[in-house]
Amino acid sequence: MDTWLKEVTELHDFFEGYFLGTLPADDLVRLEAALADDFTILSPDGSVSTRDATIHAIRQGHDHTKSLKITITEPSLLIASDEVVVARYVENHELTNGSNHRWSIVAFRKDPDGPNGLRWVTVHETWVAGTRD
After folding, report:
1. Is residue 133 included in any domain, yes or no?
2. Does a structural domain hold residue 72?
């Protein structure tokens, strides 16, 4: 498995466990290590969040569901250089009461101190047409 895909999968495994409540509420070390200081995310609703706002929102989501399963499909490496990696994938959320699917494009900065040697710099998410319940 490519390092970038391993990182995407591992961080989403963290999200799943955190939102299911199988990880302690104060255990955000994995997330904080992954996100660059200048991290931003553009959500499907068009809002942009900073690193601090993203960490806060995830903290608020601890143990909020009992049925979440997150999978990553259609991974594609778009750009790789000595400094950055840009990739695209579909993030799938399956819940008892429905599902949603979003295209995600992520830009990583290579950093030997980051998980899997990467830091998340930005993510752009867009709903997959016709798949949001």
Report:
1. no
2. yes
The number of beta carbons lying within 10 Å of the beta carbon of residue 83 is: 9
Number of domains observed in the structure of the chain? 1
Q: What range defines the domain where residue 66 resides? A: 3-127
Q: DSSP secondary structure string, 10-24?
A: HHHHHHHHHHHT-S-
**Does residue 132 fall inside a structural domain?**
no
In sequence order, which ranges of 1-133 are alpha helices (DSSP H)?
Answer: 3-20, 29-34, 51-60
How far lies 97's CA from each of 86, 90, 126, in Å? 33, 20, 21
CB atoms inside a 10 Å sphere around CB 95: 13
Is residue 98 predicted with pLDDT exceeding 90?
no
130 or 79: which leads in pLDDT: 79
